[in-house]
Amino acid sequence: VKDWVMTGDASSETGSDLTRYLDVHCGTDIQVHSVKGAIGVRVDGADNLQINGLTITDILSTTNLGSMICGEYDAPAIAGEEVFIQPGFNGHRAHGLTTIYTNGVLQNINIDNVQSNYGNAYGLRVFDGCDIELQGDILVNNINAGIIFEPNNIDMRFMEKSLTNPLPQACGVYLYSDQDNINYDIDETNIVSTNVIGYRQCQETVTRDDPDDQFISSLIGECDNCLVKDMYVDPDF
User: Fold this and answer.
1) Fewest CB within a 10 Å sphere: which of 68, 208, 227, 231?
2) pLDDT tens-digit readout, 182-213
3) Residue 211 Cα distances to 34, 82, 129, 164, 223, angstroms
4) b/e for 99-136, b at 16 or more Cβ within 10 A?
5) In which region does residue 171 sit, left (phi positive, over 0), alpha (psi from -120 to 50) or beta (all else)?
6) By the 8 A CB rule, do 196 and 185 touch?
7) What is the pTM of this model?
8) What is the C-alpha to C-alpha distance for residues 97 and 27, in angstroms, rounded to an integer?
9) What is the pLDDT of residues 23-50, one digit of tens each?
């Protein structure tokens, strides 16, 4: 480490061969917390949450692809991380609003323009352990995942089977837990997502730590111009 500090050269060929002496962890930040990306509002462990009239706009994650120095991994390499909540690399995700282990009411929520250059993008996402009631107008618009690939002719085939950097997913109002974690009056609540564009389906079977404990993630409400695109393949690649 001293040689690297003095010379700035960490390479094995000419410098300090720094990585030989390091315990390298991927998918974490400088404090060895799992990275979570760009989030407008995150609610974790709240009791009797009451939010009415919230607007969230212009969330953009510019974080690059997860490093492959560790090889492929299914979750950040730190103690206690639940693979199903933090699969692969998560630093390039973008969320408008997330809740986890929270109960309460979300009423009249407007989320617009949530984008990720390389990763997933979500409007309103409800994780495990919630009892959330939706009321009024829940409006989500312009959710775009993996926006950098096609304009820059970046071939996406490497993501097709990757655990670390999978194909980007875009979801509007997204329940990532059991069905009873969200409830609403279908006649009194207007839940609409528009212009949601990604490269992977939102509905999927998710396995918790116990292989027999599964749920099916799902989209809530109506979705207008919601599109799962084919991955971009560079014709000159």
Assistant:
1) 227
2) 999 999 999 999 999 999 999 999 999 888 99
3) 23, 13, 18, 21, 31
4) bbebbbebbbbbbbbbbbbbbbbbbbbbbbebebebbb
5) beta
6) no
7) 0.89
8) 22
9) 677 777 776 677 889 999 999 999 999 9
